[in-house]
Write the structure tokens for this entry.
Amino acid sequence: MLTPWMAPHRVITWQRAVVLLTLGKVEVLEEYEEPIVAPSLTLRTPAVVRLTRGNVSTKRKVRFSRLNVFTRDGFRCQYCGVRRAMDDLNYDHVVPRVRGGKTGWENIVTSCYACNLRKGSRTPDEAGLKLLRRPFRPTSLPHTPFLRAEKGVPPLWRDYCPHLVDDQASVA
């Protein structure tokens, strides 16, 4: 999704784009070939949408999500310190859920599968692991070019996200 000024704002699902389109909050700039067929209408799947109003709020709390945890931790396992692609990471409860640990900013860290398996249902101390950094609730996050994984930037997005395309070329 782009701001009214054509700057990248956030990645949303096609379902969310259709809802925003129906509400008149976005305009479709690019579409995929795949049609969306509903009883009352058929339209092509939105690929790039632009907000129609200029009140883009930037003063939000950072929402807890898997991607945002990975971003906070720099896509780096907080036990072994190795930076990995998003597909090679998961998140780990520092205090395991079986011991009352909650799923939230202060108890979740990014981990690779090997470290997560090694830790199991124990605390890091019990598993002989040391956290690189204690988990915390971020007040903001950097804009994440998380599309650097094998999939890369979808072709229809490239004109709207040139900084991601440049990053992709330098990684390859």
Notes: DSSP finds five helices and four strands in the chain. Helices lie at 14-22, 66-72, 113-119, 124-127, 162-171. The two ends are 26 Å apart (CA to CA). Confidence is low (pLDDT under 50) at residues 146-150, 165-172.
